[in-house]
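#onboarding

Welcome to the new folks! Below is a worked example of what a typical request in this channel looks like: someone posts a single protein sequence, and someone else replies with the predicted structure as tokens. Don't worry about understanding the tokens yet, we'll cover that in week two.

Example request:
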Amino acid sequence: MYKNNKISVIIAAAGRGKRMGTKVPKQYIKINGETILEITTKRFQKSEYVDQIIVVTAKDQLKISERLFSKSNYDKVIKVVVGGMERQDSINIGLSNLRPEGSHKEYILIHDGARPFVSDEIIERAIEAAVKYDAIVTAVPTKDTIRQIDGINKDNSKTLDRIMLYNVQTPQCFERQLITKAYKMAMDENFYSTDDGSLVERLGF
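Example response:
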């Protein structure tokens, strides 16, 4: 299906996960003897459509991560690199460590290392949609009631229609030149956002 396209994956795993209150970042917590990060990475390792994987981790977790992914069953992991201060910095570092572009059109799939239960179906649908539209985000309908607060007058608020609201998650997948251009513009302008899709939107895409 995607034999004429190259699919690269960047797994963001440099976060500290402070809200969890654990001694190690949540992506290094073990489930049945495997870290969450291993379980997450394995989802993409076994995908027939994925060509290469870059894992972006924190400096103090680098040696642990290198050891985890030095095993032969992670042959698609081409690099484990140290991330930056913010998630956006880390993804930018991941993009800069990809192999040079080849003759085939390439797509970059970005996923959070602490989301191990992404399904094969979602991965395949994300890639399929990106090949068709060049930029996609995964999202789920919000289950909470959301109130919008006026930034100036805190007493002025309203309930938003939940049917119209979705929680954006990962994976997010983009044509390589498009996401590279979006990141370059954001970093040049020192603009930071919480997800990758919003950087592409800034291009007017």
